[in-house]
Design brief:
Helices cover 54% and strands 9% of the residues. It has 830 residues and is an alpha/beta fold. α28 links the parallel β6 and β7.
Length: 830
C-alpha cells in the first residue's frame, strides 16, 4: 500500500524504502522465491547504485544462498561487496563479507572463506565491532574445525565467546552459537562429558529465545556425542529430528549436512537400501559436506561390490579438506577397500599414514595437553588395523601381521618433552582453583554454577598458544622389533594388548620369540577388570571371591600363553584396559599362586630417546606431606601421614641420599618435580574422575588466605614437565584412568608422560595405616638395590604387606603399580 502511494507521488527513494521493507518481511518468513521475484533487477528499481539498492541486493544474495543456487549467490555477493565499497558503507560491507565467506565455506572453498574472514577481522571497527569480531571468530572456528585444525578452532571459539560476553546487547543467541561450536569441538575430540557440559549451557540460553534452527544444531551435537558412545540408534533419532527441523525451516545447507551424517549412521547400522535411495538425491549446488557424501558413495559401492566406483570416490576424497573425524573415517573406508581387494598390507599402510598425520598435527595444536588429546584419536585407526589383522581370512602371513602390530604398538613411543621452568602458567592455576571450588565448596544459589567456571577455564587453557618447545629427542623407527627384543633379559617378557573393537589379542615378545596370542574381546576384558576391582576396593571383600574373579580375568587375558612357567619379569604396555588390571592377583595358566609370588610386574611406556634405563643415585629425596590437619582444610586429616617422613628417613639412613621435607605447596612440589635426577614422595589425598579432562590430581595444603586445599591436576604436570627420576604417589586412585578412552589421563600416567622415569601409584583408595609398613619397605629395598629398580622394590613392599597379619588382604597391596619408561632399543632411535 505504502509502496504504491510513493510510486503515485513519484518519490523513488521512499518507494524503494517501502519495497525494501516488504522484501525484508518475505525474507524473515523464508519466502525466498518471492524475494527473488521482487529483486529481479535491483538497479532498475532506482536506476543507480544506492544504499537501498545494495540492501535489496543483500536480501537477494541471502535468498539465493538459502535456495542452494550457490553460483548465482556468489556472483550476487561479489556485486554487493563492490557496491558497498563504492558507497563507502564499511559496516554493511563487513556484514556482507561475512555472509559471503560463509557461502564460500558452504561451497567447500575453505581457504577463500578463511582469507576473507581474516581480512574482515583485521579491519572491523565501530559500535558493533565486538559482536562482529565474535561472529567472525565463530565462523573461523567452524572453518578450522572442518579443516581438522583443532587448536585453531578452539582458539577462535574461545575468542568468539569472549567477544559475545563483552557485547552490550543481543549476544545471548550468539553465545549459544559459540557454545554449540565448542561442544562440537569437544565431541570430535571424544571428550563427551565436556561436550555435553557446553551443549547444556547452549540449550539453556536457547530455550527462552525460541530458535528452532539453533536447537536443531544442538540435536546434531548430541547425536555426535551418542555416536561416540556407540549408541547409534539414539544418534539416528537425534539426526532425524534435526534434519526434519531444517527441512521445515527450508535451511538447505544445514539440511543437506545433517542428511549426510544421518545416512552415514544408517550405513553403519546396515541400512544400505535407504542410504542408496537418499544419496541419489541432490538439491541445488549442494551437498554441503561433499567429503561425507563421497565416503557414503564409497561405502555403498563396497557393499554392492563395485570396487572401481569405490576407488573413484576414495581418490576424490584425497583432495577434500576434511575435519579430523572425517579424516579418520576416510582412512577407514580406504582400508576397507584394500581389505576387500585382498591387500592387507596396503590397508595397514593407509591406516598408519593417517595415524602419522595425526601425530604430526598434534604438536601444532597449541599445548601439550591438547596435543595428547588429539593424539588419542589415532586409537580408532589402531582398532581398525588390529581388527583387520585378527580376521581369520587375513591370518596367512604371520610375520607381516606381527610387524604391523608392533608398528602400531611402537607408534606412540615418545621421549621427555622440553620444559620451561621459569614460570608456572597462570591459566592452569585458574583451572585448578576453579575445580577446587567446584568440588569442595557448596554450589551457590545464584550465579554461574562452579562447573561452568571450571570448563571455561579448561577451554581457555586448551586454546592458549604453546609455552615451550615441542621438540622431542629421538625419532622412532617402528620396524626395529629385533632391536627391542635384544633389550630384554632371558627371563623377561613384554606384553601389549591389541584392542580390535570386537576382537582382542596379545603381542607377546621375548628375547627369542614374538607371537600374536588370542585373548578375550575388549568388552569382556573391561568387564572382568571391573568385576575384580569392585571386589578389591574393600578390605572386607571375600578373598575367595577375589580369587575366582582373578582366575576368570586371568583366563581371558593369559589363557593361551605359550609358556608353562610365568616370566620372572613382565613388562606390560601401559594402555587401557591393561593399566587398570590388578596384575599382582592374576594367576598364570596352570598355576594357583598369585603373580606377585613369582613375577615382578612393571607397566611401561615405550621411550624413544635412547636414554639409559638405569637411574643413578638420586641427588635428593624430597618428601611432601599434605596431611590436611589445618583448621582451614575441608578434607579429612591423614592421621598417619605426618609420620611418613620419619619412616622414610629411617629406611634410607644407610644410603647417601639427602632427605628434605619442603612444605606440600603447589610451587614447592612443581619445583621438586623439575629437579633432574630427584626422587619425590607425596603423601596426600587424591582424586580420580577419569571421564573428565583434568579431573584427576592431588590435594595440597591451603596457602596464603585460601580456606580450601589447593588442587593440582594432571594438566599442570603435563604442561610443566617432570625431570625427577622417581615419583611416589601415596594418594588414593592416582593410577586410575578408568576405562575412559576419551582423551583423559590418570595423574600417574601424566607424571610419566611428562618425563618421570619411574612412577608409583595406586589404582584404588589406599590404607593410611598400611602405608606405615609398605613405604619404608619400598625405600629400604630401592636404596639397597644398586640399580634402583622401582618395580622390584614395590614387589618387595607388597610381599612385606602380604606377610603381615593386618594387611594380608589384597586390598592393601594389589592396587599399587609402577609405570616406567622403557627404552625401545638402541637400534630404534636415530
Amino acid at each position: 500500500m505504502a509502496e504504491r502511494a510513493w510510486v503515485s507521488l513519484g518519490d523513488n527513494n521512499r518507494t524503494l524504502a517501502a519495497h525494501l521493507g516488504r522484501v525484508g518481511e518475505m525474507l524473515a518468513v523464508a519466502e525466498y522465491r518471492r524475494v527473488l521475484d521482487m529483486t529481479q533487477d535491483v538497479t532498475a528499481l532506482n536506476g543507480a547504485q544506492s544504499y537501498l539498492t545494495a540492501r535489496l541486493g543483500n536480501e537477494r544474495c541471502l535468498s539465493l544462498q538459502a535456495l542452494g543456487r550457490l553460483h548465482e549467490a556468489s556472483d550476487c555477493f561479489e556485486w554487493l561487496l563492490a557496491t558497498y565499497q563504492a558507497l563507502n558503507e564499511r559496516g554493511e560491507y563487513l556484514v556482507a563479507a561475512q555472509n559471503f565467506a560463509a557461502l564460500q565455506r558452504d561451497r567447500g572453498n575453505l581457504q577463500a572463506a578463511e582469507d576473507l574472514g581474516v581480512r574482515c577481522l583485521a579491519i572491523v571497527s565501530g559500535v558493533d565491532a565486538t559482536m562482529m569480531r565474535g561472529r567472525l571468530h565463530l565462523m573461523l572456528a567452524d572453518i578450522s574445525l572442518r579443516r581438522g585444525r583443532i587448536g585453531e578452532a578452539l582458539a577462535h571459539a574461545n575468542a568468539a565467546l569472549d567477544q559475545f560476553e563483552h557485547a552490550q546487547s543481543g549476544a545471548l543467541r550468539w553465545q549459544a552459537n559459540a557454545l554449540l561450536v565448542i561442544a562440537s569441538l569437544y565431541s570430535q575430540l571424544g571428550a563427551d562429558d565436556e561436550a555435553y557440559g557446553f551443549l547444556n549451557d547452549a540449550v539453556k540460553r536457547l530455550a527462552p529465545l525460541g530458535a528452532p534452527n539453533r536447537m536443531a544444531a544442538a540435536m546434531n551435537v548430541f547425536a555426535d556425542i551418542e555416536t561416540n558412545g556407540r549408541r547409534l540408534q539414539s544418534a539416528l533419532l537425534w539426526r532425524r529430528a534435526a534434519e526434519e527441523t531444517y527441512a521445515q525451516l527450508k535451511m538447505l545447507p544445514s539440511y543437506e549436512s545433517t542428511r549426510s551424517k544421518r545416512l552415514h549412521l544408517q550405513i553403519e547400522l546396515g541400512d544400505f537400501a535407504q542410504a542408496k535411495h537418499d544419496i541419489a538425491e541432490h538439491y541445488g549446488d549442494y551437498p554441503l559436506d561433499a567429503g561425507m557424501n563421497l565416503m557414503l558413495e564409497a561405502e555403498l559401492a563396497l557393499h554392492e561390490n563395485r570396487p572401481a566406483d569405490a576407488l573413484h570416490a576414495i581418490n576424490e576424497l584425497a583432495h577434500m579438506p576434511l575435519s579430523l573425524r572425517n579424516q579418520i573415517s576416510a582412512a577407514q573406508v580406504e582400508a576397507k577397500y584394500w581389505m576387500r581387494r585382498g591387500n592387507a598390507e596396503a590397508a595397514q599402510q593407509r591406516l598408519l599414514a593417517q595415524a602419522r598425520r595425526i601425530a604430526a598435527l598434534a604438536p601444532r595444536t597449541g599445548n601439550p595437553i591438547l596435543r595428547y588429546v588429539v593424539t588419542r584419536q589415532a586409537l580408532t585407526l589402531r582398532r581398525t588395523a588390529v581388527l583387520a589383522a585378527l580376521e581369520p581370512t587375513q591370518r596367512t602371513d604371520t610375520a607381516a601381521r606381527i610387524n604391523a602390530m608392533w608398528t602400531w604398538v611402537a607408534l606412540n613411543a615418545s621421549g621427555r618433552q622440553s620444559t620451561d621452568t621459569a614460570t608456572l602458567p597462570a591459566a592452569v592455576g585458574k583451572f585448578d582453583h576453579a575445580l577446587a571450588w567446584e568440588l569442595l565448596v557448596p554450589r551457590p544459589t545464584v550465579g554461574a554454577p562452579p562447573e561452568t567456571a571450571t570448563q571455561r577455564e579448561l577451554l581457555s587453557l586448551l586454546a592458549r598458544p604453546e609455552r615451550h618447545s615441542t621438540e622431542v629427542k629421538g625419532r622412532v623407527n617402528t620396524s626395529a622389533l629385533l632391536a627391542f627384543q635384544h633389550t630384554l633379559d632371558a627371563e623377561a617378557a613384554f606384553l601389549a594388548y591389541l584392542d580390535g573393537a570386537t576382537r582382542g589379542a596379545l603381542l607377546w615378545v621375548t628375547r627369542d620369540r614374538v607371537e600374536l596370542i588370542d585373548a578375550a574381546s575388549p568388552d569382556k576384558v573391561r568387564g572382568g577388570v571391573l568385576a575384580l576391582r569392585e571386589l578389591m576396593r574393600s578390605p572386607n571383600s571375600s578373598v575367595t571371591e577375589i580369587e575366582v574373579a582373578a582366575q576368570d580375568l586371568s583366563a581371558q587375558l593369559l589363557g593361551a600363553m605359550p609358556l608353562t612357567q610365568p616370566a620372572r619379569h613382565l613388562y606390560i604396555l601401559a594402555e587401557e584396559p591393561l593399566n587398570g588390571v590388578p596384575w599382582d592377583v592374576l594367576t598364570w595358566p596352570g598355576a594357583s599362586s598369585f603373580l606377585v609370588d613369582t613375577t615382578t610386574i612393571e607397566l611401561v611406556r615405550l621411550d624413544a630417546t635412547g636414554r639409559d634405563a638405569e637411574s643413578p643415585s638420586p641427588r635428593s629425596l624430597q618428601v611432601m606431606v599434605a596431611a590436611q590437619e589445618s583448621d582451614h582444610s575441608m578434607l579429612p586429616p591423614l592421621a598417619a601421614a605426618e609420620a611418613e617422613a620419619a619412616a622414610i628417613s629411617n629406611a634410607v639412613s644407610r644410603s647417601a641420599i639427602s632427605l628434605q621435607t619442603p612444605p606440600a605447596t603447589r610451587m614447592s612440589l612443581m619445583s621438586a618435580l623439575q629437579q633432574p635426577g630427584a626422587w619425590v614422595h607425596i603423601a596426600a589425598h587424591g582424586l580420580a574422575q577419569p571421564q573428565r579432562i583434568g579431573y584427576a590430581g592431588i590435594w595440597l595444603e591451603p596457602t596464603g588466605d585460601e580456606k580450601i586445599p589447593t588442587f593440582l591436576s594432571w594438566i599442570d604436570i603435563l604442561d610443566s614437565g617432570v625431570n625427577a627420576d622417581l615419583v611416589v604417589l601415596n594418594a588414593c586412585q592416582l593410577g586410575d584412568s578408568g576405562t575412559a578412552v576419551n582423551g583423559n589421563l590418570s595423574f600417574a600416567d601424566a607424571v610419566s608422560r611428562a618425563g618421570a622415569k619411574h612412577v608409583v601409584a595406586a589404582l584404588w583408595p589406599i590404607s593410611d595405616a598400611a602405608a606405615a609398613l609398605w613405604v619404608p619397605a619400598f625405600y629400604s629395598a630401592i636404596t639397597s638395590d644398586p640399580h634402583h629398580d622401582a618395580a622390584h622394590a614395590l614387589r618387595a613392599a607388597q610381599l612385606r604387606l602380604r606377610e603381615s597379619r593386618a594387611f594380608r588382604h589384597p586390598f592393601f597391596w594389589a592396587g599399587m603399580q609402577t609405570i616406567d619408561l622403557m627404552p625401545i632399543g638402541s637400534g630404534a632411535a636415530h
